[in-house]
Amino acid sequence: MRIAHNISGMNTSRNQGIVKGKLGKSLEKLSSGYRIVRAGDDAAGLAISEGMRSQIAGLNQAMRNTEDGVGMVNTGEGALQEVHAMLHRLETLAIESANGTFNSVARVNVDLEKKEIMEEIDRICKNTNFNENELFGSGEPTVPITPPEESDTVTFQIGPSGEETMDVKRYLMSSKALGLMGKDGQTEMELGTPELANAAIDTIAQAVQAVTVVRSEFGAAQNHLDHTHNSLSVTAENMQASESRIRDTNMPDEFTNFTSQNILMQATVSMQSQANAVPQSVLTLLQNA
User: Fold this and answer.
1) 133 strand-pairing partners
2) Is the bond into 279 cis (omega within 30 degrees of 0)?
3) pLDDT of residue 84
4) For 156, phi and psi rounded to 5 degrees?
5) Cβ count near 186 (within 10 Å)
6) Widest CA span of the chain, in angstroms?
7) Gyration radius of the chain's alpha carbons
8) Helix, strand, coil abundance in the chain, percent, nearest 5
9) Which residues of 48-61 are buried (b: 16+ CB within 10 A; e: fewer)?
10) Alpha-carbon distance 38 to 188, whole Å?
11) pTM for the structure as a whole
12) Which residues of the chain have pLDDT under 70?
């Protein structure tokens, strides 16, 4: 029996420190919900997890981008729906004015309504925007006019990489761009005589077809964006599940480990007191000597 060095106590103390460290890490994982709290827990897993988190963030933003894109094309399509309604009214007015039963006063009134309709078409096509981005191109159409005439494109970022983009065409959509002009392509279309009204009927029909083409472009873009959003959503969900398996704590397994370490800690505390009792027994012998 020795009292200069308590080797048993030192051994017990060392093991107690190891168990205490493991118990602390287990508590950290249980309280945070993460299996990897710091790089030392799993360096390779951390690198993979961080890469996945970057992809997930990109996918989530791409989904928001597609939602904004849907909002944008819906705004444009809604505006053109009203333009279509006004063109149909113009067509009705032209057919009415072409009828020989109309007198000059009635045709003047028809022409006044036509003027108001064309001004409203110009206002809608000029002022329709999404987040201050014009939905219809600005500028003068070429002559002779063959609507619809493409102005430029709006590019949507629909994925987490720089190559995942989608272009939506913008068209010139003013009354002049729609061809609602006289034969010279410069002066406003007239409905004041049966001859002028008859000539205008085909012009208006062409404008109706032009708006139909642009609305179809918007509709196709919306369907594209809807499918893209669904695809991004599924990919983000699967990526998140994979990242969770790497990074998150398996709570039942970790709680089992915590319970084991807790029992070991209690055992080391008990053994520590037993190891410290050995030198005490030497003092008892000395006292009885």
Assistant:
1) 130
2) no
3) 95
4) -105, 135
5) 9
6) 143
7) 39
8) 70, 10, 20
9) ebeebeebbebbee
10) 73
11) 0.77
12) 1-5, 138-139, 142-145, 182-187, 277-289
**Residue corresponding to tokens 């060392």:** 14
Closest CA relative to residue 63, chosen from 244, 248, 240? 240
Residue with tokens 């002066």: 187
- Looking up tokens 């039942």 gives 252
Backbone angles phi, psi at 72, to 5 degrees: -65, -50
Distance CA 184, CA 33 (A): 74
Quote the tokens at residue 159: 């994925």
Provide the β-strand partners of residue 150. 171
Q: What are 39's two structure tokens? A: 């790089």
CA–CA gap between residue 64 and residue 186 (Å, rounded): 43
Counting Cβ atoms within 10 Å, is residue 72 exposed (0-12), middle (13-18) or buried (19+)? buried
The neighbour count for residue 70, using CB atoms within 10 Å, is: 19
Kindly state the tokens that stand for 69.
């894109």
Q: Which long-range contacts (C-beta less than 8 Å, at least 24 apart) are formed by 103-111?
A: 107/191, 107/192, 107/193, 107/197, 108/192, 110/191, 110/197, 111/190, 111/191, 111/192
Residue range 203-218, pLDDT digits in tens: 899 999 999 999 999 9
First CA to last CA distance, the chain = 15
217 vs 25: CA distance, rounded Å = 58
